[in-house]
C-alpha cells in the first residue's frame, strides 16, 4: 500500500489551491441561483435545495471512501482501493509526524507540492458540483428523498470511479492511475468528461426514467426570475477560474494560460449563442446570454490547457452555436430535460473534449498536436474513446440506479403534489409570500414595529393593510 510522500509543501501552490477550492465551492450556490431562477415560483426552493444538499451528501461520502475510490491505488484500471484512505486515513496532518518515513515533526503527506488535505478538498468540490448539475434535468417532479438517495448512489457508483479514470495520475497519488489519463492519454484538463459529459448523460437518463412534467411540452414553463439566472451565471464564471486554472495544481504559467483561454472561450460562446438566437428567433435574450456563458465554460474545461487563444475562440464559438441549437432537441425527441442539462453540459462537454483532437496547439501547456497542427487523427481518436466510454458507463449505471429507486422508494411526486407545487409538498415552504404579493389583507397587529411605522409608505405603493 502506498501513501503520498512526506515533506514540506510549496506555500504559493498551497495558497492558490485553497483559494481555488473556495472558488469551486462557490459554483454550487451559483448553480443554485442559476437553476432556481429558471424554474417557476413554486419550485425555486426545491431547486436550490437540490444543489445545496449535494454539498452535504457528497462531502460525507467523499471523506469516508470517495476520495479513496477516486485516488487510491488502482484496481483493474477501474477504481481506487476504497479502504486505502478510508476516513482520510494517513492524510490528516495531525498524524503526519508519526507516519513511517517522516524526517521531521513538520513533515506532512503531500500530493505533488500540496498538502494532501488541500488536494482532497479541491477534488471534493468537483464531486459536489457534478452531482448538483444533474438536478436541472428533473426539476418540478422528483421527490426530494429520492434525490438524496440518488445523489449518494450515483456519486458512489458513477462519479467516484470515473474520477479515477480521468484524474488519477501516475506518480502523484495512485499507483497506475486511471486508464483514460494514463493508458490512452486522452486530454481532460479539468473535467469535461468526468464532470460535464458524466452529469449530462446522467441527467438525460434520469429524465427519461422519471418521465415528463405534467403538461409538458404544451404548457410553458417560463423562468420566474431572470436576475437570479444572470447572478448564477456570473458566480459560475467567477468560480470557474478555480475549476480550470486551479486544476494546474500550482501557481505557474499553466494556471495563467488556462485562466486566459477560459475567459476567451466563455466570451466567444456567449456572443455566438446571442447571434444564433438573433438569427433564429429575431431577438437575443438574457437567458441566452447566461446559457451561452455556461456553454463556453463547459466546453473549455477539458481543453483549456491544450489550445491557444485562437483555439479557445473556436471552441467557444462552436459551443455557443451547437448548444443553442441542441437545447431544442428535447422537443423533437420527446425527453423533458427541464433546464437543458443535456443541451448545455452533455453537448458542451462533447464539443470541448472532441475539439482537443482538432485544435490542440503544440505551444499550449499540454504540448499536444491536434489535426489542424499536423497531429493527424490520433488525438481525436483518444478523445472520442474517453468521451464515449464515460457516456456508456454512466448511461448504464444511471439507468440501473434510477430503476432501483423507482421500484423501491419511488422517484416521482404524486399528481396532486406536483400540481400543488414541489416547494409546498416536499418542504412545506414557499420561496415567496404569495399572500402579500397578491395584495391580501394583513392585520396591523401582525406587523413588526418598523412595518407599522412605515404604514403610510406601504399604503402609497398599494399594499392593503387592515386597520386595527
TrEMBL record:
| Cellular localisation | Cell membrane
> Cell membrane as a keyword?
yes
Query: Example GO molecular function term?
Result: ammonium channel activity
| UniProt-annotated stretches for the region Disordered | 444-468
Residues crossing the lipid bilayer are: 15-37, 44-65, 116-134, 146-169, 189-211, 223-243, 255-275, 282-301, 307-329, 341-364, 384-405
The superkingdom of the source organism is Bacteria
Q: Which InterPro entries match?
A: Ammonium/urea_transptr (IPR029020), Ammonium_transpt (IPR001905), Ammonium_transpt_CS (IPR018047), NH4_transpt_AmtB-like_dom (IPR024041)
The topology of this chain with respect to the membrane is: Multi-pass membrane protein
Q: Keyword Transport, does the record have it?
A: yes
Q: Which UniProt keywords apply?
A: Ammonia transport, Cell membrane, Membrane, Transmembrane, Transmembrane helix, Transport
Using the record's annotation, list all stretches that form the Ammonium transporter AmtB-like domain. 15-432
Gene Ontology CC terms: plasma membrane
Q: What is its main location?
A: membrane
Q: How does it assemble?
A: Homotrimer.
Q: What is the protein named?
A: Ammonium transporter
Species whose genome carries this gene: Mycobacterium intermedium
